[in-house]
Protein: Transmembrane 6 superfamily member 2 isoform X1
Organism: Odocoileus virginianus
Amino acid sequence: MDIPPLAGKIAVLSLGALPLSFALNYVSVLSYPLGVVLMSTLILGLLSLAIYSLSRSDIYYDPLYAVFAVFAFTSVVDLLIALQEDGYMAGFMAFYTKEGEPYLRTAHGIFICYWDGIVHYLLYLAMTGAIRKRKSYRNLGLYWLGSFIMTILVFLPGNILGKYSSEIRPTFFLTVPFVLVPCWAGLRVFSQTHVPTCCTPNMVEEAQRKGLLRRPVDLALIIYLIFAAFFTLFRGLVVLDCPMDACFVYIYQYEPYLRDPVSYPKVQMLVNMFYVLPFYGLAIYALIFPGCSWLPDWALVFAGAIGQAQFSHMGASMHLRTPFTYRVPEDAWTSFFVCNLLYALGPHLLAFRCLWRPAFFLHPPPGPPANHEKQH
């Protein structure tokens, strides 16, 4: 997969969030929730007009250029929020976390901002760069789509159902376009044509003739997916308070963060159990039986989703903003880190395997036409 060049114009425009957020921090009207939402709407509107006037031809070629450009700006804002909440800078986004979205000050919220400000930001620059060069960004878009949807699936219900439900401000409704736009963007990304592969019909036929024992990488991935599925189910049962001694031992010794009343970890594990667990079962099927052409795309989507989820979960489990009783005990750090890192790494290896040698997942070539003798 070729990585397109980063879009320098969008990088410069998005970095304008630094002086702007610093200046807005001293505007008195932003000490009120309504003032924050009105100013945020105005800024997003002016930003959209600026992007349209500067990159009209790119937007006509692909409207997602404007979407990624706006999201790149908000990613820089999220990175500023995370850095400020961790004490690495001051005087930038205090007004927003106080009167706009106070739940961003939680450990989970901080790590969501780090992921958005680093991983998503680089993806936005790469995808806008690909659009400017008229190149395909389908694989990057699928990874971003999974990551972004996982953020929304966990963060929004966690805000509504958790202990911060009483502190929802008008700015919460600004998330509505951030839910609807990715749905539209995802449909456009999926509708893009696949990048042509170098697999010939003979290569596809040869790859699909091999049994599982002759494909050790696939066999190893299947074994991993089985263990990951049991781990996903087990953590889901823990969150559902299943009366098993193993659940209580695990939650108190290794992941007490699952008991945190902020609700993000509970929602995260339930999303994993109801969405990720079925995917693991389908992926095992696709690694056994050839011709499942849907796996490479969905492997990228779920790699992005699980990568974002594990980054936020692991970081929040050990962050100082998490109350001490819910943090991972120091003597369990190694076990916790290794298990969760492997859980995050496996889907990325699966996606890499699908992109590396896709012949097994392509539709089998049509057989030779049957030779019928002439009837006299």
User: Anything to note?
Assistant: Residues 107-132 form the longest helix (26 residues). The chain has two domains: 8-191, 201-361.
